[in-house]
Amino acid sequence: MNNKEGNNKGKGPRANSSRPNSNKPKPAMQKRAQGPKKAKPITKVEEEAAAKAAKKPNQAPKRQKAADEIRLNKYIANSGACSRRDADIYIQSGNVKVNGVPVTEMGYLVKPGDTVNFDGAVLTPEKKEYILLNKPKNFTTAFDEGQEYRNVLELVRGSTNAKIAAVGRMDKNTTGLLLFTNDTDMLRKFTLPSQKSSKIYQVSLDKNLKFEDLEKINKGLVLDGHRVFVEDISYIDNEPKSEIGLKLRSSNVKVVRSIFEHFDYDVLRIDRVSFAGLTKKNLPRGNWRFLTEQEIINLKNV
To answer: How many domains does the chain have?
Structure first.
């Protein structure tokens, strides 16, 4: 007896079944043979819907905006820290906290009394203002020169309710560009001796400036024990040689006056025609304007 016959012999009636021999497994067996049923792939739309439905640990639930609430990115921009677009980047990266909790939600609404911490610093809710004035004569930045000379703040009165101050000082005879702001960081920045922004002055002297004196000034000089670096000095085209263009980093007008007095020239007028890249273009004498967002960014980066 061969092995095939011996194996069939002990199987009883099932072995002799008259059913047709089929290699196809039964339905139940077929399911087992295929293994567990594969899950239907989740589409991108379903993923986004699930993500929105899930409550994220560092995000507050969306709520209806109240009249006294403000979007977080606008709050940051109003505080003068950066633009709204840059604020969104800081928010997404987790560098913004509200009441000590990191917030990464773009539409998060800040309520009155909330404490906003931006990249390690607490922001103040007051909007930062930047106002450029083309100052006329007979106005001064000082408050102690008597009633005969009016203060420059009169010229920008009504421009803002913020408590602004002039960047640097100007006496009654100095005209030209004068910046006002309530940004204490910027006020401090432009009064530091190490600040690097250039200012251009047109100086009117009582007599022609000698060429040898112009060269000496161009090389720099020491005033009151401090070295003064002059970036450029030149005669003004089509003007008498008593009209001088001077470029240097100091925003202190007294330094400009002292430079020429050091060489025995009397300064009749000083007009600041450029301040850290800002010019008097389309700004008549006595008028003011708000800086653009790009101008503010440029000032912060000089």
So the answer is: 3
CA distance 151 to 233: 31
- In the predicted model, is pLDDT for residue 69 greater than 70? yes
Find the mean pLDDT for residues 230-243. 96
pLDDT given at position 20: 52
**How far is residue 258 from each of residues 202, 280, 284, measured CA to CA in Å?**
15, 25, 28
Rounded CA-CA distance 154/54 in Å is 56
Largest CA distance in the chain: 137
Whether this model's pTM surpasses 0.90: no
CA-to-CA separations, 159 to 117, 130, 156, 172, 293, in angstroms, rounded = 29, 10, 6, 22, 17
Contact 58, 66 (CB under 8 A): no
168 and 291 together in one domain: yes
Q: What CATH number does residue 140 fall under?
A: 3.30.70.580
